[in-house]
Amino acid sequence: MSRLIVISNRVQAPTAAGVGGAQGGLAVALTAALREEHGIWFGWSGETGEDHELRFETFEGVTSAVMDLSEQDVEEYYDGFANRTLWPLFHYRLDLTEFERDFQGGYERVNRVFGQAIGPHIEPDDVVWVHDYHMIPLGWVLRQQGVNNRMGFFLHIPWPPTRLLVALPQHRRLVESLFAYDVVGFQTEEWLESFRHYVVTEMGGVLSDGDCVTVGGRTIRAIACPIGVDAESFIAAANGPVAKATQLRMLESAVGRSMMVGVDRLDYSKGLAERFSGYERFLQNHPDRRALVYLLQIAPPSRTAVQSYRDIRDNLDAMSGRINGAYADIDWVPIRYVNQGYPRDVLAGIYRAARIGLVTPLRDGMNLVAKEFVAAQDPHDPGVLILSRFAGAAAQMPQAVLCNPYSAEDVADAIDKALRMSREERIARWKPMFDNVRNEDVLWWRRRFLDTLTEAPLCERNAI
Ligand code: GDG
């Protein structure tokens, strides 16, 4: 019987210690598959230590295996190459991208350490699924270990245009390592297109039918496979008692005012400063309607070891303070800016109480908040989703009010349009988005990727 092996930087499987207890959609989808197929989820423990030993634990029928990394590993691989080189570069932020040889060395070293530790635990019939930019070379390391299994890779973030990617020293080495996999998945056709462009123009690759991409005699299938949310459980949460109580609390805290909500990790890719500027422009353009609306921005801090993340926090603290100082009245503040996370069912209630969901990333692989917002709405009186055209989710949700997040005027106009929208139009726009969120949910995504990997004929098995 074949097992599923999942490998990602952080393991989100449930453990006795509760790590992974705040189960997001990805964790729900993958732990269900791991439970059914008696698989193992491998990754970093999130802790530092010197021994690189895998620690196995089986909890609620799911086995996870985690390893500590040394402080140097974390600095070079995680805070360094993953979050200061690949993340900004893949989100089109060449200005924030740091190129350090030590980062690349640490990234390759940690991938080797993972591959060497995990390789011996892979059995001949296992199907291996590697996730995200932290682990791009892992498949190649596993092949070197003699792992000849079906192996897939999914990239959760955008794939950058060739002209940006070539700024990365050793870009070709990184992309070549993807050819160790059998299937490589991207969130959207746009990212897939960028990948294919790179392969053709930089590597002399050849595209053929059935998503096949060939370079130097090695062929992989490259597909677009958009991730979804755990829609049914989010809909249930939005109709549950905690969400209802939260909804009431929100409504009572601002009677007669429409709430706009944003929920994002504090990350420059999410376009928070641009969102505040767009909202400020709306307040300037419509003084008579100022007090009828407010923005609740939930932004839990992330990657605080990286300077650019500390900078964005300082910038947003200053912007929210300035905007509130300039426009607030004795009984109203324009922005409620909150730097903490909330449980999922509370979030669902907040989404449901909102008249507008503001999802305006400058660049985003997909963006699950947009889908969760849609899932949480009241079918008879849904809120309006304002969505950046640069989020992967925009390809599946053309009925949202699409905006250009770089333009304060455009964001201000989108807010104005959403606030004026009739109930009929809100329902007409929401319904097809809701159907999409429900049909193409996280289980659909998992099945689509794994079916491609396990059932469809592979273009050619890759062996090193
Ligand atoms: C990467 C890609 C892609 C946020 N605050 C709270 C909270 N969240 C949850 C949201 C959502 C998730 O975190 C964030 O997902 P996103 O998709 O918005 O963004 P990234 O973290 O950047 O994820 C992205 C994703 O991978 C999946 O492939 O869509 O493009 O960048 O689920 O709800 N959850 C709770 N409290 C919070 O305060 N419970």
Please characterize this protein's 3D structure.
This protein has 2 domains: 237 residues, 3-Layer(aba) Sandwich (Rossmann fold); 208 residues, 3-Layer(aba) Sandwich (Rossmann fold), CATH 3.40.50. Helix 8 packs across helix 13 and helix 13 packs across helix 15. 44% of the residues lie in helices and 18% in strands. The strands form 2 sheets. A 10-stranded mixed beta sheet has the order 3-4-2-1-5-6-7-10-9-8, with helices on both faces. It has a 6-stranded parallel beta sheet with strand order 13-12-11-14-15-16, with helices on both faces. It is globular. It has 464 residues and is α/β, with parallel strands linked by helices. It binds GDP-alpha-D-glucose. The site of GDP-alpha-D-glucose has 21 residues, from helix 12 and helix 13. Belongs to the glycosyltransferase 20 family. Pfam families: Glyco_transf_20. This is Trehalose-6-phosphate synthase.
Keywords:
464 residues; Rossmann fold; ten-stranded mixed β-sheet; six-stranded parallel β-sheet; globular
User: Fraction of residues in helices?
Assistant: 40-55%
Main sheet overview: 10 strands, mixed
The CATH superfamily of the largest domain is identified as Glycogen Phosphorylase B
Task: Assign the CATH architecture of the largest domain.
Answer: 3-Layer(aba) Sandwich
- For the largest beta sheet, what order do the strands appear in spatially? 3-4-2-1-5-6-7-10-9-8
CATH class call of the largest domain: Alpha Beta
Which cofactors or ions or other ligands sit in this model?
A: GDP-alpha-D-glucose
Distance between the termini: 25 Å
SS-based class = alpha/beta
Instruction: Give the overall shape, derived from the CA principal axes.
Output: globular
Strand content: 15-25%
Number of strands: 16
Taken together, the total number of domains comes to 2
